[in-house]
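REVIEWER CHECKLIST
Item 1: Sequence provided? yes
Item 2: Single chain? yes
Item 3: Sequence as submitted:
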Amino acid sequence: MTNETTPAPNFIRNQVRDEIAGGQVTKIVTRFPPEPNGFLHIGHAKSICLNFGLAEQLGGECHLRFDDTNPAKEEQAYIDAIKEDVSWLGFEWAGPVRFASDYFDQLYAWAQHLIREGKAYVDDLSPDEIREYRGTLTEPGKPSPYRERSAEENLDLLERMRNGEFGEGEKVLRAKIDMASPNINLRDPILYRIRHAHHHQTGDKWKIYPSYDFTHGQSDAIEGITHSICTLEFEDHRPLYEWFLNNLPVPAKPRQIEFARLNLDYTLTSKRKLKLLVDEQIVDGWDDPRMPTISGMRRRGYTAASIRKFCEMIGVTRSDGGLVDIAMLTHAIRSDLEDNAPRAMCVMKPLKVVLTNVPADHEEVYEVPGHPAREDMPMRKVPFGRELYIEQNDFMEDAPKKFFRLAPGKEVRLRNSYVIRCDEVIKDDAGEIVELRCSVDFDTLGKNPEGRKVKGVIHWVSAAHGVPMEVRLYDNLFMVEQPDRDKDVDFLEHLNPESLVVCEAIGEPSLASAAPEDRFQFERVGYFCADRHASTAEHLVFNRTVGLKDSWAKIKQKG
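Item 4: Structure as written out by the authors:
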């Protein structure tokens, strides 16, 4: 794990800072250009933090632009979710939200320009024929029989394509570059396809839509982007990016810089596969807390600060460092919540305890710190009475020597309260433990008992005052580090059947006032967040964000 006292590498920030110092760039302008065909995931968070972070740190600006060139897969709901995610992460885009579709008229005019220059043509080859003619990595492509059409014919055909005279797949507009280029991206790439699809921004105005490659660099140029920052899979597209800029009368020439994308173990970041999980109802929508989407992580209880911290920890390099350990991500959120989440007690699997030497009408209320190291957090009130609930696994009838919780004849301290001793175990007809009878040492509130040492401390909730809650215990959605590594095995076969376990728990009364997205450390259990959609005052729902380390589990593993 990266040493948090040592700045993580960020070669792009260093490079741009040097350019500004050297006068090559006066003001950096970056952009975050998502396609609105799904929700953003943790990989996008790295790009967001990089592009917006550079603008923040170096006195520039960052645009939010939707590269909306494929209306068949795009939805307004995705646009709204992306805007909310960027804002939630704490970033502000410069100017209005932009769309590549804002530039469709200009892009069309530039396509006509390429035709007039003899650098583009309308092709009648089918999609399969285009693939066949393109060649392979080891064999050059061959020219289309339609490659030498006249500019006049190409302009006429393009206009007729725009007017909807042809069906989808009948014709495309291609750039005329080099069918023998070792870079397949330069083998006459497609500029326009026919799509009879309604567009969420332009309606039914267009029957043809530009390709991503033709749209992206020119949109950057129109907006005056100085640095077009993208992941390494676009490195082979850079010569095409530059070819368009060099062969069109664009107002600016941005520079493309690539960096290594984020690959997180036990996680999928393929939008297509994430959409499959949603469509097949394997998860409960794009913001299911098991999803690696920003909205899913937010719903699970991750903070914006923890995601930004994680992105800073992993750094920005050009080398593909393989899988990032998901423990780095959980470390970032655990560190944040350790410092900032108020404490509360919650019993996940209740076992009833009756304190036999406490009167039935006895009640005490303890004033307990909201956080052990935060005086700015308000105190909370914890009531105590004759009947309590403790965790089932905090009691063992036949306890080994190193089990310092409750057992017959043994003592344990109740958190913030007294030491109790287990005197009797009550079982039902099936032999299951249903109740413990215990006694209180009333001389142990805030001090150790006389003449004996009590090592164990357990959490508890008053039976009379406890708040019933639904608690959702989330874990990794997949059981293997790389769910989609083996192309011969369906990634769905690696789903974790225990990725969600729901239990009915009992929490201390202070939790009754929890608002959606309020985060807590449930003492000795883990960090939890009130579900932003499901939790109400009438029905509290808490999602486990991340667990705590279990020392007892380690002892058991050691044998």
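Item 5: Key structural point noted by reviewer: Residues 42-57 form the longest helix (16 residues).
Item 6: Recommendation: ____
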